[in-house]
């Protein structure tokens, strides 16, 4: 069944820089996940299957060599807000589209900003050190 699904290149599943395992489970419902290791071990066969690259935390790196090796690539899906780490002009020269998730972290970012402002205004960190030395 996975062979019938569109192939998506990812760096890895789990580990330090791989796609989170829970996210991989969700992705597997709609895509055939191909790790960078699998791709590099069998580049000739895998390159034809990959239609998308899922960039998670800036990985895998998208460069000209990778784009040239993926003849059926249609889209690069970036899991973050910004796309500064991607050379959009180079990617578009290959006829590949780029997506991102601009609102994905808007609420958590606002929550963190409010928490930091309140902690600063109430001097919570300093108070914690004064009342609980060594913590």
UniProtKB/TrEMBL annotation:
Superkingdom, natural source:
Eukaryota
Which GO cellular component terms, listed alphabetically, does the Swiss-Prot or TrEMBL entry include?
cytosol
Q: Which InterPro entries match?
A: D-isomer_2-hydroxyacid_DH (IPR050223), D-isomer_2_OHA_DH_cat_dom (IPR006139)
Q: Where is the D-isomer specific 2-hydroxyacid dehydrogenase catalytic domain?
A: 26-113
Per its record, what are the GO molecular function terms?
glyoxylate reductase (NADPH) activity; hydroxypyruvate reductase [NAD(P)H] activity; NAD binding
Q: Where are the transmembrane segments?
A: none
**What's one Pfam family here?**
2-Hacid_dh
User: Could you tell me the keywords of this UniProt record?
Assistant: Oxidoreductase
Show the PANTHER family listed in the entry: 2-HYDROXYACID DEHYDROGENASE-RELATED, 2-KETOGLUCONATE REDUCTASE
Q: What is this protein called?
A: HPPR reductase
State the organism of origin: Eolophus roseicapilla
């Amino acid at each position: 069944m996975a062979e019938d699904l569109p192939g998506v290149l990812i760096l890895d599943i789990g580990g330090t820089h791989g796609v989170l395992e829970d996210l991989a489970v969700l992705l597997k419902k709609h895509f055939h996940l191909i790790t960078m290791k699998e791709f590099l071990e069998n580049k000739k066969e895998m390159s034809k299957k990959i239609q998308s690259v899922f960039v998670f935390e800036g990985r895998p790196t998208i460069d000209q060599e990778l784009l040239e090796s993926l003849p059926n690539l249609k889209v690069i899906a970036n899991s973050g807000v910004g796309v500064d780490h991607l050379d959009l002009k180079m990617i578009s020269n290959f006829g590949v589209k780029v997506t991102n998730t601009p609102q994905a972290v808007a609420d958590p970012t606002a929550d963190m900003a409010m928490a930091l402002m309140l902690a600063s205004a109430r001097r919570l960190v300093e108070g914690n050190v004064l009342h609980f030395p060594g913590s």
